[in-house]
Please model this.
Amino acid sequence: MKHSKIAILRWFLIGLLIALVIWLLNKVDIEQVRERVDQFGIWAPVIVFGLRFTSVIVPVLPGTAYAVLAGGLFGFVQGFLVIALADLASCTFNFYIARRYGRGLVERFVGQQFMEKVDRLGKRHLERNFFLMAAFLMTGLFDFVTYAVGLTQTSWQSYLLALMASILIAKPLWVAAGAGIFEGSQLLLGFALLAAFGIGAVTAVVQRQPDQ
Model:
């Protein structure tokens, strides 16, 4: 019951942050915002990259809103590139920290109250099932999963392959949602909604897998 409440709270925060981003950007002319963003040059995507990177390393608040923001500000292609690179860098960093320094340093990043979640994910023995590991990396728990997998004996090659597969499959949906909302693209919105249902189904299935 406790874990269910935490999961519900997490998804509530994700929804709230996305709604806040959408509300804020709908209050202004998106084209004007993009023009001002363009004035920052390379620093605009660097800032969003940094925010997303930090939210994955210190997973206190969900970073999904930054993916929506990236799609809204930069469009689908550039927005996805920013988020994909941020996730690749941060998740690789998480894995390295866990593998190199162990559980003690991981707890400093995630906090004692969330370390139980990392331990619980570790009990899934994801290193024994590549597809289950990739599926977990597609869920909203992916930041915790990266730490958990790093504490196992999973090889770098296997982890990076699963990580890249999860980024290519799961990350475009939130960027597409942002781009679709602010560009008025029904195709992108439709893709995002269908993908959201798919990721939701994956999340439901993998979280029902019993600890081994």
